[in-house]
Specification:
GO terms for molecular function: alcohol dehydrogenase (NADP+) activity; butanol dehydrogenase (NAD+) activity; metal ion binding; methylglyoxal reductase (NADPH) (acetol producing) activity. By secondary structure, the protein is α/β, with parallel strands linked by helices. It has two domains: about 170 residues, 3-Layer(aba) Sandwich (Rossmann fold); about 200 residues, Dehydroquinate synthase-like - alpha domain (Dehydroquinate synthase-like, alpha domain). The chain contains 15 helices and eight strands. The chain has a six-stranded parallel β-sheet with strand order 1-8-5-4-2-3, with helices on one face. Strands 6-7 form a two-stranded antiparallel sheet. A hairpin with a 4-residue loop joins strand 6 and strand 7. Helix 7 runs parallel beside helix 11. The chain is globular and about 65 Å long. It starts with 10 loop residues before the first strand and ends with a helix. The model has no long low-confidence stretch (mean pLDDT about 100). The structure holds 5,6-dihydroxy-NADP and zinc ion. The site of 5,6-dihydroxy-NADP has 35 residues, from helix 2, helix 5, strand 6 and helix 7.
Length: about 375
């Protein structure tokens, strides 16, 4: 196991009825910006619960944070935040809203052009307004991490920043808020969580037993409960297990002391930036292809994954690996997320465009060995057609 330092600063309130805890978490004299998306929280009653909990506290609303949140939209929220002297940002929604809130929190008190936050991957962020979240979609882990992914629509750049200043002070995870998710978003969430785990697990062995067995446990949860959530969207136990699994998949714990890959995310991000596919759709396309391309370098962990997650113990190494990759693809498809570029009307013409964006962003040495070059990315995408 490698050396590591680990701390996670987010307080979690998990369970039904926990939205009422907002009252204890937000100072009575705060000026709160409630940031949200396209309105799902109005239709499913979550916004009404938030207002009830915040009764008597001064609050403002900023609606319209889109999936894959746009820098341009968020800058309107930054202007409102400055104008109204907001002191607390409350994100109510999925990963896009929480990521957007993190950007607003950092940008509102940033001295230079806030795009610099993204260009420097958050390295220059020295402060941020406090923020909290009410999560309504189990997927990204943004509710308990320090990352944020932002898109500049004008230039089709989808990039990210990290800063410990944007850890949510608290996040409220009420699984019943996810009953109203469309099947597409439930499926996306399961696939995103799954890929978060394997990006930190299917690399090379460093004898990190806690991390490995924890990763395998999270993957088994997703295999077991993902399909159940599609079949029975209002099963509380299923939604609860999926929600906590998704949070645990990307709150920093799994990546302690182990190498991490992230090539699938980096390539997938460019596909979303250019063509607007959902985040999880890009992962379902790229992940199996990355494994086909890197199966030699990842051999030991792919065999461990095949055995411990898919019970594959018979046959030679190559067959077990191929079967594990195919089973992974079938699982994504069973969650309603297609796994080929052609399923989304894309063809080989996208390959040079994605590669050019990777080069433009300097993302030219990807993966746990930092050896996936733009030429490799082209080969990976060719395997995903
Ligand atoms: O906008 P509203 O109306 O709320 O509708 C949303 C949106 O259309 C809807 N939705 C959310 N909760 C709902 C609901 N509909 C009904 N009932 C509910 N309870 O779902 C749609 C998608 O929402 P979005 O927030 O975009 O989804 P997700 O949580 O998958 O977030 C995706 C974004 O997170 C980034 C992705 O790149 C993408 O931009 N990621 C953030 C990460 C992080 N911060 O650590 C890591 C991830 O790898 C990921 O990159
Ligand atoms: Zn992701």
């Amino acid at each position: 196991m490698k050396n590591f330092s680990y701390r996670n600063a987010t307080q979690i309130h998990f369970g039904q009825g926990q939205i009422a805890k907002l009252r204890d978490e937000i100072p009575a004299d705060a000026r709160v910006l409630i940031a949200y998306g396209g309105g799902s929280i109005k239709r499913n009653g979550v916004l009404a619960q938030v207002h009830a909990a915040l009764e008597g506290i001064t609050s403002f609303e900023f609606a319209g944070i889109e999936p894959n949140p746009h820098f341009e939209t968020l800058m309107d929220a930054v202007a409102l935040t400055r104008r109204e002297k907001i002191t607390f940002i409350l994100a109510v929604g999925g990963g896009s809203v929480i990521d957007g809130a993190k950007f607003i929190a950092a940008a509102a008190v940033y001295r230079n052009d806030p795009w610099e936050i993204i260009q420097t991957y958050g390295a220059k962020v020295t402060q941020a307004l406090p923020l909290g979240s009410v999560l309504t979609l189990a997927a990204t882990g943004s509710e308990m991490n320090n990352g944020s992914v932002i898109t500049r629509a004008a230039t089709q750049d989808k990039l990210f920043f990290h800063s410990d200043h944007v850890y949510p002070k608290f996040s409220i995870l009420d699984p019943s808020t996810t009953y109203s998710l469309p099947a597409r978003q439930t499926g996306n969430g399961v696939v995103d969580s799954f890929v978060h785990v394997v990006e930190q697990y299917v690399t090379y062995p460093v004898n990190a037993k806690v991390q490995d067995r924890f990763a395998e446990g999270l993957l088994l949860n997703l295999l077991e409960d993902g399909p159940k959530a599609l079949a029975k969207p209002e099963d509380y136990a299923v939604r609860a297990n999926l929600m906590w699994t998704a949070t645990m998949a990307l709150n920093g714990l799994l990546s302690t002391g182990v190498p991490a890959d992230w090539a699938t995310h980096m390539i997938g991000q460019e596909i979303t930036g250019l063509y607007g596919l959902d985040h999880a759709q890009t992962l379902a396309i790229v992940q199996p292809a990355v494994w086909m391309h890197t199966r030699e370098a990842k051999k030991a962990k792919l065999l461990q994954y095949a055995e411990r997650v898919w019970d594959l113990v018979d046959g030679d190494d190559d067959t077990r690996i191929t079967t594990a990759i195919e089973k992974t693809r079938q699982f994504f498809e069973a969650m309603g997320v297609k796994t080929r570029l052609s399923d989304y009307g894309l063809d080989a013409a996208v390959i040079p465009a994605v590669v050019a964006k990777l080069e433009q962003h300097g993302h030219v040495r990807l993966g746990e060995h930092a050896n996936i070059t733009p030429a490799d990315a082209a080969s990976i995408l060719a395997l995903a057609l």
